[in-house]
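Predict structure. Chain length: 322.
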Amino acid sequence: MTDTEAFLRTARQVVTDEARALDVLADSLDENFAEAVQMILQATGRIIISGIGKSGHIGHKIAATLASTGTPAYFVHPAEASHGDLGMVSKGDVVLAISNSGEAPELANLLAFTRRFGIPLIGLSSKPESTLMKQADVHLLIPSMGEACGFGMVPSTSTTLTLAMGDALAIALMKYRDFQPEDFRAFHPGGKLGARLSTVGDLMHTGAALPLVAADTAMSDALIEISQKGFGVAGVTDAQGHLIGIITDGDLRRHMDGLLGKSTQEVMTESPTTIQSGALAEEAVSIMNDRKITSLFVVDEAAPGQAKGLLHIHDCLRVGLG
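Prediction complete.
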């Protein structure tokens, strides 16, 4: 067997073992999981996650996932908790303590603190008879299926199961609270994800930047407006300010003969494609790509037909969309 074959065989075995363990975890979930969700929902404070070693690393991720999906949470290192950070835990909070063995000595002071002050405690472990689970009010038990290394010493399968349990909690809470993409966006303003969740209203041009002309405007004046605003288009409005058409470079080419002697209404394309400001910018990009256009006028939801803004494809490309 070559090195490549050996590496792939080991990798596939690890993934297979962990996938099998996840299936067992899914089948093992019971009323304890529902009780943990209810306990978190009833909390008036925050969810405090704690764990040491690899359990701590997973705990950091669980805390971050909860916080980003509408459940206020943060991670408290158990060793730091013993040196003053217990002050971060207070009435109204719920503590989620993670330990695969359930016997991590670093958690002892935190567990004692929750018992002393009546703070609800959720234990997450693979050992139902451990100290942690005996102290906990609610038990989240992960299957004890060994580790992927084969000799039970390298946290792998257990950390995968712990991570999956944390994700299950976060998503169950998120769905119960009807947490929507626009809520998710509020916690993710940066990076590629933030760009994908940007709304048209976040990126559009408004006010004096809008290239708008009246229906009876001479094309000589409309060309000046198009040139000055720099979007390559102009919106045409009626006497009430409703957007009734758009003038693009294609319209200019089609009416080149005698163009300067015409009005904007004679040149425009009627009923232009528009979008509302609350729509995701990603949706606007999809529309522009499908229609093979570079700009979209944004209409006012409160005053139908009124031009509220303009979104150009370059605005979307600038934030990483497209």
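Summary: The radius of gyration is 29 Å.
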